[in-house]
Amino acid sequence: MTNLPSFDDLRVISEDERNSFKTNGHVLVESLCSSTELSPFVNPLLKLGAEISWNKNISLEDQRTYDRAFHQAINLWRLDPVAEAFVMAKRFAHVAAQLLDANGVRLYHDQLLNKKANGGHTPWHQDAFYWPIAGHHAITMWMPLVDVTTEMGIVEFVNGSHQEGDLKGGAISENSEQKLSELVNEGDFSTSSYKRLNAGDATFHAGWTLHRAGSNTTQMDRPAMTVIYIADQCPVLNLEREEQHLDLFMYLPGVKEGDLAISPMNPLLWSEIKQ
Ligand SMILES: O=C(O)CCC(=O)C(=O)O
């Protein structure tokens, strides 16, 4: 393995960043890693993502909105040491812990979301709809692996929506897009979007934060790596939805409702004690 940056040094978030996350349910952490640091990870992540993405070969007529939104590869860290080094990064995990106000964070899962050239929009949705974990115990980091512009599809957030709980949009689909866009357009919500992000910038959003991404109208792919962190020692909820059962089975194997959300698939990535 080539010499990779360790990401062992920590980044203390500013009061503004902390407050933005508390108030809005999302925050942009600029230059969480530099393009030089990120560079050795990019090709291995893209290569592995292209190999294992489960929806890359769906024919045009069978593609749903979900498949047009991105090619999705999950848990790259288990398959490749370079991906593992990226996902295990203490610097990223520590930011997640500070924003969650947690003494430690574990991995829930990683994913590479590659919105392909001319790819479709990512419908409005809330991640916690899928999770067997309370929305305030989990947080998603979204980091573009290349410099991106609005035209390529950058995540966009509804400010304060993390306080609203389940807005009943359901699973990511045209249905969630329709229901939730009506809510956003008719309600008192304001949204935050970015014209441009650099590779290595990262947004973090809470479990119930309502978000979407526009379509990719360019000829370039828009790969983004996401890592979902959960507060150490948080419990698994009593499950209400089929999607939560599936997530529990996939990402917390052997763990049951009411148990602590800990399995061999959920390594401790940062903790005050482990330092
Ligand atoms: O990358 C995208 O298009 C969507 C990202 C997203 O929904 C997420 O990371 O939760």
Topology:
Elements: H1 15-24, E1 26-29, H2 35-52, H3 65-69, E2 71-74, H4 81-87, H5 90-100, E3 104-115, E4 122-125, E5 138-144, E6 148-149, E7 155-158, H6 174-186, E8 191-192, E9 196-197, E10 202-206, E11 211-213, E12 222-231, H7 242-251, E13 268-271
Bound molecules: 2-oxoglutaric acid (AKG).
Report on this model:
By secondary structure, the protein is an alpha+beta fold. The chain has one domain (about 15-270): q2cbj1_9rhob like domain (Jelly Rolls). The protein is built from seven helices and 13 strands. The chain is globular. The chain starts with 14 loop residues before the first helix and ends with a strand. The structure holds 2-oxoglutaric acid (AKG).
Helix content: 25-40%
Q: Which CATH architecture? A: Sandwich
Total DSSP E strands: 13
Approximately how much beta-strand content do the residues carry? Answer: 15-25%
Number of discrete domains:
1
SSE string: HEHHEHHEEEEEHEEEEEHE
The helix/strand class is alpha+beta
Rg on CA atoms, Å: 17 Å
Ions and ligands: 2-oxoglutaric acid
Q: What's the shape?
A: globular
CATH topology: Jelly Rolls
Number of helices: 7
Write a short abstract of this structure.
The protein is 27% helix and 23% strand. The chain has 275 residues and is of the alpha+beta class. The protein is globular, with a radius of gyration of 17 Å.
